[in-house]
Amino acid sequence: MTRLSSPADHSAPVPERQLKRGVLGTGGLVFMVVAAAAPLTVMAGVAPLGLMIGGVGAPVAYLAAGAVLIIFAIAFTRMTRYVSGGGAFYAYIAKGLGRGWGLAAALLALVSYNTLQIGVYGLFAAQTRATLTDLFGVTVPWPVIALVALGLVLVIAWLGIDVGAKVLGVLLILESGILLLMAIGILTRGGASGVDGASFAPAAAFTPGMGGVLAFAFAAFMGFESTALYRREARDPERTIPRATYFAVGFMALFYCFVLWSVVIGFGSDQVVGAASANIPGLFFAATETYVGPWAATLMRLLVISSVYASQIAFHNAITRYTHSLAQDGVLPAWIGRVHPRFGSPYRASVVQTILAVVVIIGFAVAGADPVTGLLLWVNTPGVVGIVVLQALTAFSCAVYFTRRNKAASTPAALTAAVVSAVLLAVATYVLISNVGLLTNAPASVNVVLVGIVPATLLVGAVLAVWLRNQRPETYARVGEGAEPAAAQEVAA
């Protein structure tokens, strides 16, 4: 991988509405994407549930989800060279389906990323509180922990994307390392009853519960498309963005599958489902303690906390880049898009996002809600559904762009990938919504409301687009263009 930043990154002043240029290489982009997915949290916190409902074939679901997203990435990265803005999904959708759809997608992206990020503060607070109690006998109220984490995320974001990439790189290596250490420990000792390939047998991969596991699997790749959000901050984005996208998706698919398969071997393919059912939250810790040692299980508990913190930094950066792009396009007030003169960070967008998170966290705390079943599951779910919907819309947008907007940009591979991924992601959206109860553990009426936030947000965005087209046509003309302030009037004209 290329280096993260150059020594001169901090020296020159940054224009007030321009992000710092050329500070992220392929490695920095990969750290942003994979850290957002929080591999250790995905494995230790969610994968045991996949084993319980899908059986020993659960590892294959992560390969399947990764394969679908690799197909999507072929079209997505091909279109990257024709999208000048840093708005990722909404810029692509605006190019392919038109500015109205683009603006609706922009609003959905803001809502989805905010709900993903804010909801996870509940998980961070609950895990940190439990760890402090278990290891040190100290009990701290979860809202206090969440608010402290908010402040720490804001500090890293304020200091600039290059600082954030370095922090995420260290945290990601640590959390991936402990999972790899567990897997190696299991395989070198032969597991509970020998190493076998039962997880990859056709009968295991096509059990009825695999639909639910696929829902978890697609959620495990959240944020992989955010490589395109850092277009302006990337070095040679025509090359680094595709490289980082392919590497991130491929790494996560193979790593998730390998680690979960190793746990199947650790407990035995004939016993692991029962073990997962009996101890969902402690399955990975038990495997680590058995095959590596108690010290490693304790370290894993601490690294789960840092894993969630890393994902919070990554999602916060994604939210502020969407906000900055919308401010540049004139949809949001210009002041929110201001960039720090020294650090080159969209610091005002960071402050606004932090204030929003404070309001939500305090609201749930005052209501006496549980940080996991309330703040995490209920706030997080619309974000998961929204991101998968945006992926499907973006794939469809790529197909339209290659067939109607810019035929010269198309290649047979890119067009085929766009069409195939649009169909597969539409199916994935259906599977996710059909199994959304597994994510929320809530009554059907609550699930209808949570899922309904996604189409309602798209509708509000469409209404806003019509209003802008009629009342502020110069702003509407800039949607998805991502023009620099000096060129904004020319783009609108």
UniProtKB/TrEMBL annotation:
Organism lineage: Bacteria, Bacillati, Actinomycetota, Actinomycetes, Pseudonocardiales
Name of the protein this chain belongs to: APC family permease
Pfam families: AA_permease
Gene Ontology CC entries for this record: membrane
InterPro entries referenced in this protein's UniProt entry, alphabetically: AA-permease/SLC12A_dom (IPR004841), APC_superfamily (IPR050367)
GO-annotated biological processes: transmembrane transport
Domain Amino acid permease/ SLC12A as annotated: residue spans: 29-474
Source organism: Lentzea alba
Residues that span the membrane, as ranges: 29-54, 60-79, 100-124, 144-161, 168-188, 200-224, 245-267, 351-369, 375-402, 414-433, 445-468
Positions in coiled-coil regions: none
Membrane topology: Multi-pass membrane protein
Keyword field: Membrane, Transmembrane, Transmembrane helix
Record's subcellular location: Membrane
